[in-house]
Prior knowledge:
Helix content is 42%, strand content 23%.
Amino acid sequence: MNQKILLVEDDPLVQEAVMDYFISKGWRVQAADNGDDALELLALGSFHLILLDVMMPGMNGFTVCRKVRETSDIPIIFITARVMEEDELNGYLLGADDYVTKPFSLPVLHAKAEALLRRAKSSMRKRLQAGSLEIDVNTHQVFNHGRPVSLPPKEYEMLLFFLENPRRIFSREQLLIRFWGYDFDGNERVVDNHIRKLRKAMGVCGCTICTVRKFGYRMEVE
């Protein structure tokens, strides 16, 4: 197996149980008690998967996930005692790949981890296309009619997100949380400004980010 997991969990009993189970299955596991320590470990070494508790003292799991997604697409499974649908949806918007709810089955968590890594390996291709737009996810290059399109990091991440979720409507609040986080001090107008810049950079390409009145934005492909 030789897969390495970062377990971020402040409950020592849960942490010990998960570590023991995964180690017994041949995984290597490194643990952190809080978000700050987790980000330090990620900066120092590489991991194949993150098991991330949502409710922790200090930096919560949502913030950790957002910060990780700024630089990495490593698979993330949230471990949470909260079962509110809104929390789960926001977790996915921030970039989580799966959820388990406490109390959970260790065999089920292990099965989810294995399945997630299999999907991650099979999607390492990775080119996305809509109309004449094409994104090489591995190199972060964007092309329109074969010509390179220069995008700042935020616009690139937004374009990638919309291409991965075509025809789905996202509210300004959801986009604000996804790309700026819960602790952002500004207002939803920042979303409109970045969408406007992204549309201009995209040009004529056979797809567009449409405004859905009173709801938000949606990617439409001709």
